Protein 1
Amino acid sequence: MIAVNGLSVRSGDFELRDLTLEVPPGRYAVLMGRTGSGKSTLLEALCGLRPVHAGSIVLGGRDVTRLPPAHRGVGYVPQDRALFSHMTVRRQLEFALAVRGRAAIAARRVAELTDLLDLGPLLDRLPAGLSGGEAQRVALGRALAAEPAVLLLDEPLSALDDESWASACDVLARVQQTTRVTVLHVTHRHEETRRLADVAIELHAGRLTATIPPPPPPRSSQEALPR
Amino acid sequence: MSRRAAPPRPAASAADLSFRAILAVIGGFYVVGLAGLLLADLAYLATTGGAPAAPLAALQPAWNAAHALAGVFADPNIRHSFALTIVSCLVTTVLSLVVAVPLGYLLSRSRFPGRGLVDAILDIPIVLPPLVLGISLLILFQFWPFRLASRQIVFQVPAVILAQFTVSAAFAARIMRVGFDQIDTRQEQVALTLGCTQARAFWSVLLPQAVPSIVTAATIAWARALGEFGPLLVFAGATRMKTEVLSTTVFLELSIGNLRNAVAVSVLMVAAALAVLLIARSSGGGMPEATGFGGRRAAR
């Protein structure tokens, strides 16, 4: 799950104030907003890449507000994918496991991700030779390698042509259904919301509004989300 | 697979051609002058006498030049100077990188109090007149704690390396800073989310991508060390068989009126500099935009 409560984040003169949202475990949430509305800033705060001035962030049932990015259990795919330009696709997929001292299971995990994301022909290639759709799948695989509780996607489909976009949507839906990872997907395209979202949230003028509310929780909590 | 023919370019207009011609003439004067400098040195060696007759008369100019270059190696003073130059430049290059990589990283990736001051201090060896730098080094070693090592350093071989290092490291740090600036921080951020500490992200993600900048920084550090003269003369002296390096050899040979040897040593220095430059270029370095000395890049 992703639970943000009263979050305030500053980025230069820009400020997000008192944001609250919740994405139930295993759901696919799409966060929409115009360019410059602060979507990416919010995502970076969830990753631990921006300091939080107030409020709390709970990811996968743990309060991670003061934890460094390495200990938050997130998989992050930035808008430009930021693939490691000097590493082959195979090394990118192994990277998270290698740095966490789990290299022993890396080969098995790479095989799983290769199947899930159809990366077989790409494993020994460098990012420079990949198409937009291929790079997006590699970035997704790299983020999922250590089996994070939460997957944070910053406009993951923004640089794709229409045909690649449609197949990338299918990949994202399949990944989420297979892994049951909780996803927060930032975009400015309503079409992605219609196609992928269990939960849709709009960030406008610094406020969050639910356009597709999360399904009611199984037990008694009746918290209206987002507030 | 057949190579597709390049589409024909649109013909340049007469105005475009004359514009380019004017630029080429202006720039060409300088480039031709630079090439002329080297050719003049070689021509001087080729035309001055002293060499025995060549096996073929047509080869006499090349024979003369080769004889002049071989002659400098016959002199034990110059052999010592050559060896000290190579060793001191290598040590200086390594030391410069040891300092430049961390400094460049901190200036590129960190915001800390006094960052602007550190940046300005790094310009000192670049903008200070070389002789003033030498005198400043000399004076520095009058004071504690430097004074304690003064006898082992000043006018000794370590002074050669220290004088070279003082200038070379500043240039190398500038290049590393610009090199790190040119690498997007996003990859390091992703590495942090994947479980890296900052140190691990630096070693695994940033540094491998900075190799071309490291090669460039090493090349510039080497070239600066090779050409160092003013601070060396003041701080290390020009004692034969002790602190003499090739730049001081040129000066010493000139001062005793041996122009032929001075030119021959100069040609050797040019060859050494070109060799390092060629090695650097072939291994991915070069002289890229990474030479924004004193420049301030806009924040991304």
Protein 2
Amino acid sequence: MSESPLRLPPKPKPSPWAIALSIGMVVFTVVCARTVGFSFSGLIEDLGRSNPVAQGLLEISWGEMFSERSRRAFLETLQMAVLGTTAGAAVSLPIALWSTEVGNPYRIPRILLRSFNNVVRAIPDLLWAGLFVLGVGIGALPGLLALFFFSMAVIVKLTADTLDGIDMGPIEAAKASGASHTQMLRTAVVPQILPAYSSYVLYDFELNLRASAVLGLVGAGGIGQRLDFFRNRGDWGKLWGLVLMFFLVVVVVEWLSVRIRRRLV
Amino acid sequence: MSSMSASPPVQLPSKPRDTFKIVVSTVFVVLFGWSAISVDIKWSRLLEAPADMYRLFKAMYSDIPWDELSRLIGLMWDSIAMAWIGTLIAAVFAIPLSFLAAENLVGRPIAWVTRQVFNVLRAVPEVILALLFVPMFGLSPMAGVLAIGVGSIGSLGKLFYEIIENIDSGPIEATDAVGASRLQRLRWGVIPQVAPELTSFLLYRFEINIRASSVLGVVGAGGIGGVLADTVRFKEYGVAGLALIVVIVGTIVVDTISGAIRHRIVAGRTIDIGEAQKYVVDTGGLS
């Protein structure tokens, strides 16, 4: 309102932390690009060449989508995903409870359990499958075991994070009315996280369905074995047929799962 | 008084019946039963599995070939580099596309079409993409980088447009009010609000992609996963055991660093109240 000229505050200088981080990121990116031998010209050159995969796209084998053997492989993939998710989900709830402060008052076991889960989480699905194939032989069993551990890692992590942020009111109420630890968990904690937990289980099922399609590449059953077979024969038309079919299955399952999850939460 | 004490006994409302839950659980039980019965697994083998795994671990760790360690660390570094470059490639495509998928920035039809693109890209696992890319780009890390790049566009785009749809509409209205063009609106009304979270999700996706890139070698797309494929072929258990340790340690180290950076980006710098107060007083002419 007065005559005094408008004085803007000086622009804050970027913190040394931000500068260091930006420089670090750029250096990291350059080093990484050199490691993988990234080059645009090479990329364009490769894309320009004719290759069997793109040609296979022109001769997609639609019959392969519904052939007897492929159908059985798809069913096996679905079965492994259902069983692996269920088994993983069953052990995940107690483990998640034991690895958080609300469910487990003892510090040392809690830290041990969290570290164990971090190790399990660091091993990718296909590596689990490879391990179990080496251990128990090829077939659906190693695939199932791999999905079990993979599911456990995913669901425990997400559920434990949810448990860290729950409302403490009901817990206090349960304790005040003299509930035992188990009763407290049953009545004050589990009902709070159950919708989120169910939603994570469904999300994990989607992940598992996608994962179980590739487990066969290392011999762990399911559609991946057929993919590997056609890849080794260089039969790209049939391989594209399977990929398309798989794509349809995933889209349908995800559509259903999203519907259900929306109702749950 | 007497009317209060004569109130009827407490009647709890009957529990609501949720048909939706009943249907979902029935379908699930049927699906589970069918899977457990008809899957091609001899369940008795499950009991032998622990003994089998114990024997495998003994074969892996009884004689660790430490001289392989530097080669394996080099391969793990390849995997990390593949994951990072792949994540960046995905971001280059996902960020502009996610603006087109946010309903508060563009019309509904455009947003719907863009989202379907994301869904298609999200559905195919990286390993299958790598399988298709290897004949195109050769047995090199480049095939893996592109598999990760293409495979991450969908999920990054989905996370990004969800962030963008949750922004405060105030700054957008403000830019509109001063007559900003569409591009200026994006630059000053949207990007400053979403940048920290976008960066954070980018790093989170990088953590996920490390897990993917460390197995892509199974189909010949570079990185440490190739060791796994070789082990199965040549029965080199010692190398596989060491590679497993390298993968776990490498992944956890990157997770920890990236997690710390993410936390710092989202939490931001703690502002000194006294310093902030100085600027408020400085702008006295404004009020």
